[in-house]
Amino acid sequence: MGSLAKKGLQQYLLQLQHHPLRTKAITAAVLSAISDIVSQKLSGIQKLQLKRLLLKVLLGFAYLGPFGHFLHILLDKLFKGKKDSKTVAKKVIIEQLTSSPWNNFLFLVYYGLVVEGRPWSQVKTKIKKDYPTVQYTSWTFWPVVGWVNHQYVPLQFRVIFHSFIAFGWGIFLNLQAKSIAAKKD
Questions:
Q1: Are 112 and 177 a contacting pair, CB within 8 Å?
Q2: What is the pTM assigned to this prediction?
Q3: Where do runs of H (alpha helix) occur along 44-154?
Q4: CA pair distance 25, 27, nearest whole angstrom
Q5: Do 155 and 72 meet the contact criterion of CB atoms below 8 Å apart?
Q6: What is the DSSP code (8-state) at residue 182?
Q7: Between vectors from CA 79 to CA 78 and to CA 80, what angle results, nearest 5°?
Q8: Which mean pLDDT values do the consecutive 10-residue runs of the chain (185 residues) have?
Q9: Hey, how many other C-beta atoms are within 10 angstroms of the C-beta on 172?
Q10: Among positive and negative, which fits the CA dihedral 149, 8, 39, 67?
């Protein structure tokens, strides 16, 4: 590893140790930004939509990073830091029945109302039509990620691991939301 990359990683780990919530929030914001830039390019947007990008960064910083930080702390306290298979399965089930549906619903609402500026009636119709597909797809993908995360990733790195995987999931959600919006236009 190059000296600059090594120093950067060391500094990041130091920030994570001393300021975990802030570091996770910034990491989620940066990864949300990169995910949205990729999504915009893949969906054929020629000129980067800065307002949309900033709104996605805000969601990552203000919600996704902090939510994940406190969720993983809560689950670890609830299950006393255990990592046996039965406990990991319980953590994954709790995550998939609570935070997964909530986060997917919140994303679709936020994207429709805030990012796209659509009226509630259109957002509500879109959610009724497309939320089941998004949630079903989530349940076919995220339990495996959750299992790996709770079984093998140390607590302080779980949000970061999750954020990196969410980078790809964000692209999927963005393309899903964009294709739905394109059909309505």
A1: yes
A2: 0.85
A3: 50-59, 65-78, 85-97, 99-110, 120-152
A4: 5
A5: yes
A6: H
A7: 95
A8: 85 94 96 91 89 95 96 93 92 96 94 94 94 93 95 92 86 68 56
A9: 16
A10: positive
What pLDDT is stored for residue 94 in this prediction? 97
| Token pair of 175 as six digits | 């393309």
If one counts every other C-beta atom within 10 angstroms of the C-beta of residue 52, the result is: 18
Token digits of residue 96: 């998939």
pLDDT of residue 12: 92
- For Cα atoms 114, 117, 122, give the angle at the middle one, nearest 5 degrees: 105
Determine the pLDDT at residue 131.
94
Q: Which two tokens stand for residue 7?
A: 């120093």
| CA–CA separation, 179 and 156 (whole Å) | 36
pLDDT value, residue 174:
67
